[in-house]
Amino acid sequence: MYGIEHYDIVPDGIILGKSVGAGLTLGAFMARDEIMDCLPAPAHLFTLGGNALACSAGIAAFDYMQTEEFQNILKTNCDILQESFAMLKEKHGDIISTTNGLGMSCGIGIVKTNADGTKEPDLDGTFKILYRAYEKGLLVISVAGNILRISTTICSVKLLQSWMKLWLIMKQAISLTTYCSSRMAGNIDITREKQFMLLSFLLL
Question: Considering 32, 40, 48, 84, which has the largest number of Cβ atoms within 10 A of its Cβ?
Fold first, then answer.
């Protein structure tokens, strides 16, 4: 369930968020006793901390996440996403350099080919994909300029249906961007002003 389980490491602490609240606003921090004990009260307390409803939901969600049923659902969902990313890279290998990630989180690297055959990060192409996806109802963000960040909820028990819709939009956005870019960007003119407007909207 945790990324660290793919590696032979023991972390000092683990920060949990989003899915652990089962839809409610909740975050959690787990660490060794000596670390937790070094935080005297009220160093670990906050104005909105300790919400009884959110904490109850979090405990119930955490208990369910440890069940065999959930682990089987999670494995199936992870397999669906990773296979989809591999198919996307195979179809658009000319602009997708990498599909890195574990489990339900993946980064898709967007590149362009220079006249001499070398490849470099394609920031404009990345924003065009984001904009096309946004036009079709899908909000995706980028990190490091040219990486599409795909991260879905781990607690979805009906991922396939929602993922197929997301997958279709992503394929259309990338295909349209590739098609128009090969024709000197066609009628897509994503100016820097529009890029920053879109980025600001996605970060709200």
Answer: 84
